[in-house]
Amino acid sequence: MSELRQRPIATSKSSNGPDKESNPRQHTINDETDQDHGISLLDIIRVIVTLLLACGGLSYYMTSSESVLWGYRPWYTRWPVVKQWVQGPVTLTPSQLSLYNGTDTNLPLYVAVNGTIFDVSANRMIYGPGGSYNFFAGRDATRAFVTGCFKEDLTNDLRGVEIMFLPVEDVEDEGVTSAQRKIRREKELRAARARVEETVKRWTGFFANHAKYFEAGRVVEDGGVHGEPWPLCESAQKQRPKRSAMMEKS
């Protein structure tokens, strides 16, 4: 039995070429192209800061070294106001308030209007000793602010002060009944009291909104207003309108 010998089949190994490795991407920079750069945030900040400094410097020069904000001085930029805010409002009786009349330079200078105390230390030339308005210092002289009698009315007693706005009955009203006079009188009295309140409010606002003054506290009456009402001063009496003049205008 013959054996069939088979020649080994030569298996041809297919040889694949070496794997081609992928080359990494290369970022090219085009040096020939000019890139436009916009305004950065830092540039904007620099411009704003420069303008603010220039504006503040001009304000400091124009206001004679008083303010870098064109006269506007927030309370937190004024040391006396900040100090008062930290310490809190003061509460003084009239006798205690009298100590703050400028005699003691270690104490602030106070003026009170309708129970509200204002610090006027920034203007000692006017409210301090020898000043033209020193009589207002260390007291509540609300009545004097209404009547204009700075010597006689240095008190906070406003009782009867509305009389200065009531007409003097210098003529007889013919044809006017007593009931009509009463109604007219009540109406004029309400108007007179409103004028007193308006005047007090105006002076309170003057000190409250002043660039150099600020509110410091309140006055607490140690005995209250008592006794006879304060008499109307001569100057205020002369300012009273006359009924005859009012009738002529009407």
From TrEMBL:
Pfam families: Cyt-b5. GO terms for cellular component: endomembrane system; membrane. Residues 1-32 are annotated as: Disordered. Residues 18-30 have a biased composition (Basic and acidic residues). Belongs to the cytochrome b5 family. MAPR subfamily. This is Membrane steroid-binding protein. The lineage of its organism: Eukaryota, Fungi, Dikarya, Ascomycota, Pezizomycotina. InterPro entries: Cyt_B5-like_heme/steroid-bd (IPR001199), Cyt_B5-like_heme/steroid_sf (IPR036400), MAPR/NEUFC/NENF-like (IPR050577). Residues 92-172 form the Cytochrome b5 heme-binding domain.
